[in-house]
Amino acid sequence: MIAIRAHHLLCMLEALALEPPHRRLFAEHGTLNRVAGMLRDNPEIPVKVVAGADDICLPCPFWSREKGYCGKAPEKQPEIDRQRYQMDTALLRILGWDQGLIGSARQLYGTIASQITGTAVAQEICAPCPDAAVCAGRFSQSIASTLKAFGVVEH
Q1: What is the 3-state secondary structure (H, E, C) of 64-117?
Q2: For 59-92, what is each residue's pLDDT tens digit?
């Protein structure tokens, strides 16, 4: 089982696609890409959706074990950690998911595709993130590419 914080499900969209339609925003993020590769290789792998540090954060070289947050921009802490948590809880709320929900990657992304829009990404979920507008503009194409990679045929 892989633990993934809710908003990371959106951050991984371009990394999950077999042929990303754009230059990926997080192309250099090693732990995000490792987890995305595991999901792409096995879309039935169980995923536990969490709010807070996950299997992307914890092994990342920027994760501060002493302080319990991303140390990439320590001068922006604890505000950036609070914003990321708000993004997690916003996605959980919009989808009606409880923290700790377990489902296959294929199931989770199918639900995201049916219930989330680019507008929701920009205005409700990822608003604190500086990349929100870019992700929102790419959302439809990125989720379609992800579902294709997972072998989901849209009707």
Answers
A1: ECCCCEECCCHHHCCHHHHHHHHHHHHHHHHHCCCCCCEEEHHHHHHHHHHHCC
A2: 988 888 888 888 788 888 889 899 999 999 999 9
